[in-house]
Design a protein that fits this description.
Structural class of chain A: alpha/beta
Order of helices and strands of chain A: EEEHEEHEHHHEHEHEE
Radius of gyration of chain A: 17 Å
Oligomer: heterodimer
Structural class of chain B: alpha+beta
Helix content of chain A: 25-40%
Number of helices of chain A: 7
Bound molecules: adenosine-5'-triphosphate, magnesium ion
Low-confidence stretches of chain B: none
Distance between the termini of chain A: 17 Å
Low-confidence stretches of chain A: none
Shape of chain A: globular
Number of strands of chain A: 10
Number of domains of chain A: 1
Amino acid sequence: MLRMNKISKVFSTDLIETHALREFDLGVAEGEFVTVTGPSGSGKTTFLNIAGLLETFNSGEYFLDGEDVASLNDRQRSQLRNQKIGFIFQSFNLIPDLDLFDNVDVPLRYRGFSAAERKKRINYALERVGLAARAKHLPSQLSGGQQQRVAIARALAGEPRFLLADEPTGNLDSLMARQVMELLEEINSEGTTIVMVTHDPSLARRAQRNIQIIDGQVSDQQQLAQAV
Amino acid sequence: MFTYYCKLAWRHILQTPALSLLIIMAIALGIGASMTMISYYKAMAHNPAGDRSEKLHAVQLAAYGNDMETWGMSDGFPRQLTHQDVKNLREANLSFPSTPIYQFMTVVVSQREGVAPSNDFAGRFVDRDFFSMFDVKFLHGGPWSQSVDEQPENQVVISKALSEWIFGEVNSVGKTFAMLDGIMQFTVAGVYEDFNPQPAYYDLTTGYFPREGAGVFAPYSLVEQLETFPMGNISGWQPEEVNGFKDILKSEYVWQVFWTQLDNEAAKAQYKEFLKGYVEQQRELGRFANQNPRGDIKDVETWLNYNEVISEDNRVMVGMSLLFLLVCLVNAVGLLLAKFMRKMNEAGVRRALGASKGQIFSQYLVEVGMLGFFGGLVGLLLASIGLWAVRELYGTDIARLDFSLFIGALLLSLLASLLTGILPALRVCNSNPSIFLKAQ
Ligand SMILES: Nc1ncnc2c1ncn2[C@@H]1O[C@H](COP(=O)(O)OP(=O)(O)OP(=O)(O)O)[C@@H](O)[C@H]1O
Ligand SMILES: [Mg+2]
């Protein structure tokens, strides 16, 4: 599903050059659930952004679903992101002035689905996360856990094969965090590949594989016992 | 996608009403000011002669003496002619249609109950050819007969408005009314629909954009016997003793205009040749004793420019108003940047969810276009108020918003706003989405 070879990412600001990723190697297979842990500033978010085609890299190779993404232009990258990738963020990143229905609608609009198709998918995705009844509510009217479930519904509506989550439970209490985790596991069990960054060791252990990033490199990989 | 962008734009406009209103007003003020000046300019730049513009020619003569080097306009011609010269030109009897013109004061007596005599209706002495040369549209009757140009008769051609004012009806052909001193009787030969070309190119000596058109046209052949003082400009190059109308007729004062219709180059050449001979002949009589005696003809377009119907000031005003528009747009750019900066996070989310830079750019450009459209509408409103003020200020009836200006204003504001929006929209779509996704 995902193959990174010797990816390097340098952020150059006026004063310093930050090597966020150095010769980063990683492969993620179709259907895997991989958790990513590591100290703050080690490059986890950078890795996720590159994986999600939100950020470019300085050197190395990246194949997404067998396709070399380096040669793609912005439009093609966006299209790929739209069709294959779902994003979930720590801070939910719902659009505050759109109701839940319209929030989930956003990726579908760029996909070019018909109105009927979009409606069907939105309702299904909201039902899936148990919030269909609140489709007309604004994000601010929901609890944090509910907001994150909407964000998951939004990421799922386009049926991506690859879900990228950056500390999706970071802003949630442990009960809500578990609920979100269970939802993600359910999604994974249906075949969606998931890469999730987390600081919570107990959550990290629940995945099939946990990788640790330190100083821009994969320092440790742990195949965790888990039935598929 | 376009309707989606419109929906988002509309929502965003409603969300930031104060900023949106400021942007709309900035565009509206710029459009309002520039459209006012452009409409006014366009109205002034209008040549009402149409396809007769190249045929009708104003005749000029350097009719001054005293060995002067120059007098009158910058090209050494006065704008008007002496009565002696007009009389001679008329009597030369060339085969070209031609007419002298001068405006006179008149008192017209109404035949309706309880209506007092009025001097509101301007009168002009012309020859019969005037009506065909300047395309006067008759409703009833027509010009006086050819013979009246030589054998004066008290016949007149009047406007529909005057006919209604005097007689209470439009068709007054054959009827008689009192005019001039309020006693002398004149018979109506024809009634025309309103005649008020803007600018009044046929006689620029009494204002370029008169609110009221001509009311009465009387045969020029009556000039000498009626002894009616002119209303327009009179000027001279030497002091002359004038004790009455007869003295003005004999003087070197210039105060009339003379038009002739020359349909082709041959006619023009022939007329110029005639003027040359005429000047020679007058010199032998002791007139035209200046350093460069000559005659000239100018077609309508040239005549309008020559008389500076559009002055340098008007051009400067248009330029200033466009500069003002520019200032307004620069302001709008700043306001738009402020408005769009708040949307950076949303743009980042949209990018993460699969929107391309182009799609984000389009979304915000649609919003700017919508603001521009509203700005254009408000601008049109301001422009119509501005034009109303111009009409009041200059006492003219020109410069109204017409359909082409309406469309023009909307296009201009759309274009201006899109230009304005390019920078802010680029800022939004080119920002790195990952930066805005982190922060909350
Ligand atoms: N846009 C940027 N410009 C400059 N430096 C950056 C930028 N984004 C990240 N960095 C730097 O790159 C390094 C890796 O950052 P990254 O956000 O990937 O860390 P992280 O592992 O996600 O940390 P955390 O656990 O705190 O979220 C850090 O040193 C950070 O300061
Ligand atoms: Mg991070």
